[in-house]
């Protein structure tokens, strides 16, 4: 057991492996010691990522209309959440939205579609869109998030130019049936493994604040470590009205910081992204979280508004960090809101 968080950071920098007792100590850090925890985690973040922040941008290729029953999701089967609903974007509209994100400072564009998983026809559709994005922005990374993959689909996406595949584990194996019954935890693990086997960078993370215990949270983060996820998005539950988890508020800003620090100590050299819900749960501590996490989404999310992109970029600069891959910040443009993006979809959005 470590004596101080600095000792733990030194051990991790020397190749140490976080154990369960260490992880519990991180999550049980007294409020008055959280700044010391963040400072120690920040040593790991800077050792591996310097002062750079990776900016990611979401393009929602297909919104709502999902047959799965994930309890946290506004797009789930039976959801009455007031969200935009539309079928597949055209390749041209995908490029337009991706271009807005790149102009705002993003170096990775994440193409996301609701549903259990894509058909082969869907994969061909996404492949065409990826090829169009890459033809316009050769240097941008493209991450696809399309659900559970079938054999051969990851290879098709790779050949089209996809760099990474996102499929979150979301929670621990022992808790998974509590949040979803239409597919299982092992379906998610298998999809991440297929992406890795195809040579895609694995992006897999979790959603916190869904009623999980500390041990379940530790199990989930250790599973991501064992899976070899290259980037770990940490989402903080947005308790959408019209979903089973509406009204669930279990996170404080300090709890959210502890969770990010746990991910950093468990996976020192892995990209840790403060993702959906950061604005409502980290609140005024978002700049402090940048000393632990080295990645974020710019602007809005799939079905909900986030912090304005201009405010995100200002927060990064004010905290003393720089945007990865952005040499001319004065050239950055404001990105459209989720409602403005919805106006350009192939099918008329339904509020």
Question: What is the topology?
Answer:
Elements: H1 5-13, H2 20-27, H3 34-49, E1 52-62, H4 91-103, E2 108-113, H5 120-136, E3 141-145, H6 153-160, E4 164-166, H7 176-179, H8 185-197, E5 201-203, E6 206-208, H9 214-227, E7 231-236, H10 253-266, E8 271-274, H11 278-281, H12 286-289, E9 295-297, H13 309-318, E10 322-323, H14 338-342
Parallel strand pairs: 1-2, 1-9, 1-10, 2-3, 3-4, 4-5, 6-7, 7-8, 8-9
Structure, described:
The protein has helices at 5-13, 20-27, 34-49, 91-103, 120-136, 153-160, 176-179, 185-197, 214-227, 253-266, 278-281, 286-289, 309-318, 338-342; strands spanning 52-62, 108-113, 141-145, 164-166, 201-203, 206-208, 231-236, 271-274, 295-297, 322-323. It is of the alpha/beta class and 351 residues long. It has one domain (20-342): Aldolase class I (TIM Barrel), CATH 3.20.20. Strand 7 (231-236), helix 10 (253-266) and strand 8 (271-274) form a beta-alpha-beta unit. The longest helix has 17 residues, at 120-136.
Largest sheet: 10 strands, parallel
Provide the number of structural domains. 1
Bin the helical content: 25-40%
Question: In the CATH classification, which architecture applies?
Answer: Alpha-Beta Barrel
State the CATH topology.
Answer: TIM Barrel
Over all CA atoms, what is the radius of gyration? 19 Å
Content of β-strand = 5-15%
Run of helices and strands: HHHEHEHEHEHHEEHEHEHHEHEH
SSE class: alpha/beta
How many helical elements?
Answer: 14
What sort of overall outline do the alpha carbons produce when their principal axes are compared? globular
**Uncertain stretches:** 345-351
Question: What is the average of the pLDDT values?
Answer: 91
Number of strands: 10
**Which CATH class applies here?**
Alpha Beta
Please name the fourth-level CATH homologous superfamily: Aldolase class I
* Terminal Cα span: 52 Å
């Amino acid at each position: 057991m470590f004596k101080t968080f600095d000792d733990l950071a030194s051990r991790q920098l020397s190749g140490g492996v976080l154990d369960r007792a260490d992880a519990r100590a991180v999550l049980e850090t007294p409020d008055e010691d959280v700044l010391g925890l963040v400072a120690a985690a920040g040593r790991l973040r800077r050792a591996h990522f310097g002062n750079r922040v990776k900016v990611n941008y979401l393009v929602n290729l297909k919104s709502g209309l999902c047959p799965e029953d994930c309890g946290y999701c506004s797009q789930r089967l039976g959801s009455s959440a007031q969200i935009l609903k539309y079928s597949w974007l055209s390749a041209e509209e995908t490029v337009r939205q991706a271009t807005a994100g790149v102009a705002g400072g993003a170096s990775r564009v994440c193409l996301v579609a609701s549903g259990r998983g894509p058909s082969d026809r869907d994969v061909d559709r996404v492949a065409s869109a990826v090829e169009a994005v890459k033809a316009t922005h050769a240097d941008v990374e493209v991450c696809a998030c399309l659900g559970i993959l079938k054999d051969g689909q990851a290879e098709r996406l790779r050949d089209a130019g996809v760099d990474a595949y996102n499929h979150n584990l979301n929670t621990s194996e022992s808790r998974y049936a509590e949040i979803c019954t239409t597919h299982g935890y092992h379906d998610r693990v298998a999809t991440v493994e297929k992406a890795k086997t195809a040579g895609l960078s694995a992006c897999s993370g979790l959603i916190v604040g869904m009623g999980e215990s500390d041990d379940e949270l530790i199990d989930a983060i250790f599973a991501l470590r064992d899976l070899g996820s290259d980037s770990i998005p940490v989402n903080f539950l947005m308790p959408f009205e019209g979903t089973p988890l509406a009204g669930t508020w279990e996170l404080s800003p300090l709890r959210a910081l502890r969770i990010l620090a746990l991910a950093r100590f468990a996976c020192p050299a892995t990209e840790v992204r403060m993702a959906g819900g950061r604005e409502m749960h980290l609140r005024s501590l978002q700049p402090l979280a940048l000393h632990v996490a080295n990645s974020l989404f710019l602007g809005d999310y799939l079905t909900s508004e986030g912090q304005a992109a201009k405010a995100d970029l200002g927060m990064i600069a004010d905290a003393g960090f720089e945007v990865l891959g952005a040499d001319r910040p004065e050239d950055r443009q404001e990105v459209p809101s989720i409602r403005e993006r919805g106006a350009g979809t192939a099918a008329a959005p339904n509020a």
